[in-house]
Amino acid sequence: MSESAVAVQYRVVFAKKDEVADGPDDAALVVSVGVADVGLDPTVGFMQGKLKAAGPTGALFDLLKSGEMPAVLARLGAR
Question: pTM, whole model, 2 decimals?
């Protein structure tokens, strides 16, 4: 988990009703991205609206800064 103590759930969407998730269902921060955009830098994806986040923005920025997101998303995207 990131330096902030906020629970995170990652979701990679393959198709409608077809997604892979990692993290607790009650996570305060939920990050979602389509499988086609997994390779994008997460910060760029967020700025382009391809990476979506629900939850506290400060925790998202901490997570983006931590550098852990690309590896997790790539792992989930490889299914």
Answer: 0.89
